[in-house]
């Protein structure tokens, strides 16, 4: 008589109440911000509710929910505004310093040459040719997600290239090069 079976709503509620501390902690580690973590955890809980019939039948519901949260976080990250390598482009219109521009170009070309082919393609198409993700994907014959991934990895590698790092540091500290 005391064994009352829980309905789907009660099962979901019990699962989320028990998983909430873990969900929130994982969301915080992904986002690095308490408010963003709360939003992400809430969003993951909403998606879990919508897919509860699948989640409750899964071998490991926590893994299923973790995947939901990772996908939600990835979607939010993709929608964020792109980062800018340098805050402003040096104004060289008033003076003609061909040697400085030549050195900058040489450093940039050497850094680009260190990138794997797909990363270099994505960086060039997206940032020099100013193509959209879908235009670059059509040009590269891959998905827009692959373009985003290759471009992000390429930019990250370029940021850590010694010559470019010195070049961007000089433009921030001493103004135009």
From TrEMBL:
Residues 106-158 form the RNA polymerase sigma factor 70 region 4 type domain. GO terms for biological process: DNA-templated transcription initiation. Keywords: DNA-binding, Sigma factor, Transcription, Transcription regulation. It comes from the Bacteria. GO terms for molecular function: DNA binding; sigma factor activity. Residues 21-81 form the RNA polymerase sigma-70 region domain. This is RNA polymerase sigma24 factor. It comes from Kitasatospora griseola (Streptomyces griseolosporeus).
